[in-house]
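Go through this one:
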Amino acid sequence: MTTIAELLRQASLSLSGVTPSPRMEAEILLAHALGKPRTHLLAWPQSEPPPAALGTFHKLLARRKLGEPVAYLVGAREFWSREFRLTSNVLIPRPDTELLVEKVLKKIPLRHPSTVADLGTGSGAIAVTVALERPACRVYATDRSLQALQVARSNARRLKAGNVGFIRSDWLDALADRRFDVIVSNPPYIAADDPHLEREIRFEPTEALTAGPDGLDAIRRITRQSPRCLRHGGWLLLEHGYDQASQVERLLAQSGFTTITCYRDLENRPRVTQAQWSP
């Protein structure tokens, strides 16, 4: 049989044209197949995986070589130093969205009983993180997908975020009678014909990625609906495409928002815009 060290060497070579991090991904997949932490691979490089684990690993490797994301293969992704479980019904949380959470948390005093709406919650990464970091607040997480809400609820239970409520809603439709201090969303913002859809993100749910011919349909709707659901002085924060900042600013201004500010992501690209409702 083949040792862990040799398996990782072979797998890293086979993934070298698929991902910029072949060794790391090979370790993640093998550790998952073994049901062990990655540190086990370093501690026991000359051990031989059992046949069942070896078969599982080769199947995962084959799927990865076809482009399927590692997060779906192992059913989890780390976000804000917590593990969120995933299915292919939800978008994979990304580091850029941690910038959005960072800016939301700055709008919520630590011990203030604020109310927050997370629109299109998906895995619940934003809603659960905000709820855990600001335990005095009440978070309402919405999604029109029942499968997504099931995943988000499961993450909230597992991570013990008891101050999150889940509501099936198409953006703010089901929240028209509520008022919030903060509304946050990482909505779909890719144009329907964007060539990136042919790459790895083709495995993610299309409805969580695309929003009309220019990618702004969801943001248009959110910026129109939000004023009636925000308290005076409340904030709307949106993640968007790196080339959409000026369009998002214009949409917010047209809806009556002020104090509009855009923030850049880790690659220095415009990624998150916040605006205040103070008519």
